[in-house]
Design a protein that fits this description.
heterodimer, A: 134 residues, alpha/beta, Rossmann fold, 5 helices, 5 strands, 38% helix, B: alpha/beta, 2 domains, seven-stranded mixed sheet, 11 helices, 18% strand, globular, binds S-adenosylmethionine
Chain lengths: 134, 290
């Protein structure tokens, strides 16, 4: 079976969305984008079922933490991996995000390799890599 | 005044190349002129040495010990990360460690050696796995030793303080929360994990003095810097250091081709784990779980 390559990037900064999306594209994924948590939830409700969602913390309308809580409240989305990618870099923030149901956490600034390494940790197959990165 | 820094003449390059080879067995290829300039340029500037020519003549002095070690330091490649390549650590946790622990249950002792441990992420990754997933080991005698030729890396490893960039790489967020605290803009590993690993500034090409009690010898991304002969010599030392049913773990892209008579791969995808030839495959493995 063809592995699921769909991903969703949620950030209110278009620039950041573009950078994250480009990294995911280079890793072989098909990223879609949303400008805040509410938009992202709508995409999920419409049936977009991504392998992983990359989520900023501070966004208008519905922030990243609230979005994580909303996704985790719906068992249909249980298998979707949620990665916070944010400039919030205090320990209690990481803890809060994990308790809300985030699977991983990346602090900005980030690199493509960091994203890849975190996805490896989560066991998400990287389409562009036949074998794990050397 | 410091002269415009420093051009590296052929003879100086050769001197430094031979010096690094003799001291650390690290091979610098003929076309790596730029690498020497790039790595030692900042060093000579910092040390207030006027040129590569002066550096070479200082290195020739028998009293230049500290400078020699800084030059070797600067010529090592220290790239590393927590849970580097992810998958080998998974295999260890799921398959290798549970069986090894079973086998050592009566002695309650495990010995791991990390050759070329750089700034400590590799031994600390294992220490965190042991703490988190095998609580029964709390009463065991665990001996984890990290060794590296670079005094700066050993200093950093002992200190256990990492930048945000470093903890962003490969470290599961759960372990960050559990075992780290913020120290200014950096992150400090907890004493409970730091105290599990001993670090030693050591040259792997010198006799390691291991007495056949090592359960797993980690030698990841180190052999690549050595030539055939030195690789072979080091792997012979590893053989002598291992218990008869112990393991060698190499980096993702490494094999023991030049030492096929000593080691056999454990049939496990992507794990880069080897056992001694002549002992039956000591681990029972399900075919690789992805
Ligand atoms: C690329 S790092 C690998 C770090 C770690 N094992 C990993 O895989 O992430 C290689 C390390 O080997 C060390 N090294 C190189 N030559 C050495 C020697 N002769 N003796 C001890 N360590 C050496 C370097 O200082 C460096 O920290």
């Amino acid at each position: 079976m063809e592995p699921n390559r769909r991903t969703l990037v949620v950030d209110d900064s278009r620039v950041i969305r573009t950078i994250v999306s480009r990294a995911l594209t280079e890793l072989g994924f098909q990223p879609e984008e949303a400008g805040n948590g509410r938009e992202a939830l709508e995409r999920l409700k419409q049936g977009l079922l991504p392998v992983v969602v990359m989520i900023d913390w501070n966004m208008p309308e519905l922030n990243g933490l609230e979005m994580v809580q909303a996704v985790r409240a719906n068992p249909d989305w249980e298998d979707v991996r949620l990665v916070m990618i944010t400039s919030e870099n205090e320990l209690d923030r990481v803890q809060t995000a994990l308790m809300a149901g985030a699977d991983e956490y990346i602090m900005k600034p980030f690199t493509k390799e960091m994203i890849q390494e975190k996805l490896n940790l989560l066991g998400v197959p990287i389409p562009a890599a036949a074998a794990p990165a050397a | 005044m410091i002269a415009p820094v420093a051009t590296l003449e052929r003879e100086e390059f050769h001197f430094i190349r031979d010096f690094v080879y003799k001291t650390a067995a690290i091979v610098i290829d003929e076309d790596k002129h730029y690498l020497v300039e790039y790595r030692l340029g900042p060093l000579i500037e910092r040390e207030g040495i006027r040129s590569f020519r002066h550096l070479v003549s200082e290195l020739r002095q028998p009293t230049s010990g500290p400078l020699r070690s800084r030059v070797v330091d600067a010529m090592t490649t220290n790239e590393t990360s927590f849970f580097r390549d992810a998958r080998p650590f998974d295999h260890l946790r799921r398959a290798v460690l549970p069986q090894l622990i079973e086998r050592r249950r009566s002695e309650k002792c495990l010995t791991f050696f990390f050759g070329g441990c750089s700034s400590g992420q590799e031994p600390y990754s294992i220490a965190m796995i042991l703490r988190q997933f095998f609580p029964e080991l709390d009463t065991w005698n665990l001996r984890l030793t990290g060794a590296d030729i670079s005094s700066e890396m050993i200093r950093r490893a002992r200190e256990g303080v990492y930048t945000q960039f470093e903890i962003n790489r490969g470290l599961p967020a759960r372990l960050l929360v559990q075992f780290f605290e913020k120290a200014g803009i950096h992150w400090r590993l907890s004493e409970s994990i730091r105290s599990m690993v001993q670090f030693e500034e050591r040259n792997l090409t010198h006799p390691l003095g291991l007495t056949g009690n090592v359960d797993i010898f980690f030698l990841r991304n180190v052999l690549i810097y050595f030539d055939q002969e030195e690789r072979r010599r080091l792997l012979q030392q590893v053989r002598d250091g291992l218990r008869s049913d112990g393991f060698l773990m190499l980096g993702a892209a490494e094999t023991t081709v030049f030492c096929n008579d000593l080691f056999v791969p454990v049939p496990m995808e992507f794990s880069n784990l080897f056992h001694l030839k002549g002992t039956p495959n000591p681990i029972n493995l399900n075919p690789c779980q992805a």
